[in-house]
Amino acid sequence: MKSSTIIIVVLAVALLFAVIKILTTSKQALAGSNADAVISNIMTRTSIRSYTDEPLTDSQIETLLRAGMAAPSAVNKQPWKFVVVKNKPILQQIADSLPNTRLSSAVCAIVVCGDMTKTLDGVAREFWIHDCSAATENILLAAHALELGAVWAGIFPNPDRVDKLRGLIDLSETQIPLCVIAIGHPAENPTPKDKWNQENYRVIE
Question: Which of 1, 46, 56, 170 is the most buried (most CB within 10 A)?
């Protein structure tokens, strides 16, 4: 084999290894960057209770709902129903009847409900609470990622709150409102709380 051919082969092999190295390094860097972004989003999310009057776009609302529906659920039953409230008079009625919902300045609310027609049977029926809670947290994290503000206000299991909200948004008897998520563009910037506490866990090895 001529020396020039050998040089070409060696250079080609070296180039191939260089390309593989670059692609591998880039993939690792991207994975690390994505992980950092996800962890940061979780750690910096905080409850926002005051909002501007800027409305949410349909695209933002759909993204929030998609995030909610991406949550895990027992046996993949997805026993949830989301009610989006943008009507300002109704938002105000809910705020007046249920002050804990923090809706007085919100431009939108998502009521996360359990759909009892889609639950498991027997005692497993109550897993809807876990499923809808997971969906709620997904929506809160998605709102933060979209630079929106949101706060989770509990409704269930308080029967008075459940009955009041059911009447205000015309829910059927098969739909139980777990919580209301007030959403809007933040008018405040509270510092996230550091909730790390070593006393709150133990390890079994």
Answer: 56
Establish whether the linkage from the previous residue to 157 is cis, with ω within 30° of 0.
yes
**87 lies in some domain:** yes
Amino acid found at 152: W
**Domain span including residue 11:** 1-44
Tally of domains in the chain: 2
Say if 200 falls within a structural domain. no
Assess whether 28 and 97 both reside in one domain: no
Place of tokens 């009625």: 93
Q: Which two tokens stand for residue 20?
A: 């593989």
Residue 49 tokens read as 């209770």
CATH number at residue 86: 3.40.109.10
CB-CB contact of 85 with 109 (8 Å): yes
Beta bridge partners of 179: 112, 154
Q: Which residues of the chain have pLDDT under 50?
A: 9-16, 19, 23-24
CB-CB neighbours of 200 under 10 Å: 7
